[in-house]
Amino acid sequence: MSLQLYGYSKCNTCRDAIKSLRAKGYELKMIELFETPPSVKQLKAWIETSGLPIQKFFNVSGEVYRDMQLKDKLASMSDEEKLALLASNGRLIKRPIAFDEHNVTVGFKEAEYVEVWGK
């Protein structure tokens, strides 16, 4: 079984997610989120697959998010503007994002990983 995972190799949460997925028997293709942010097309596919709103893909605790004062700006932005912003800067995206052709998880919570990716 294989998955792709957008993350940051120096992030403890990403490391925990990788450890959890490998323990479940997954082979992972790691993509460095800051070096290769996902495209608008990829983000749209994840939103559709996951059923999550665009806002759940923002790293609301990140420095770039705070510096750009996005908490106050997102409400007045269109979905296309939000997607373009996410695709322009990987530091704005909540990590890790694990995905295959059927499932997407954003962030890491062990209970959600068990539910989506198995024991």
Which secondary structure elements does this structure contain, and how are they paired or packed?
Elements: E1 2-7, H1 12-23, E2 27-32, H2 40-50, H3 63-67, H4 70-73, H5 79-88, E3 97-99, E4 104-106, H6 110-117
Parallel strand pairs: 1-2
Antiparallel strand pairs: 1-3, 3-4
Textual characterization of the structure:
The protein is 42% helix and 15% strand. It has one domain: Glutaredoxin, CATH 3.40.30.10. Strand 3 and strand 4 (104-106) form a beta hairpin. The protein is an alpha+beta fold and 119 residues long. Strands 2-1-3-4 form a four-stranded mixed sheet. This is Arsenate reductase family protein. Pfam families: ArsC.
What are the defining features of this structure?
42% helix; Arsenate_reductase-like; Thioredoxin-like_sf; Glutaredoxin; Arsenate reductase family protein; single chain; four-stranded mixed β-sheet; 119 residues; Tscrpt_reg_Spx/MgsR; alpha+beta; 15% strand; 6 helices
Poorly predicted regions: none
Enumerate how many helices there are, as a single number. 6
Sheet/helix structural class? alpha+beta
Q: Tell me the name of the CATH homologous superfamily.
A: Glutaredoxin
Number of strands: 4
Spatial strand sequence of the major β-sheet: 2-1-3-4
CATH hierarchy: architecture: 3-Layer(aba) Sandwich
β content, as a range? 15-25%
- Succession of helices and strands: EHEHHHHEEH
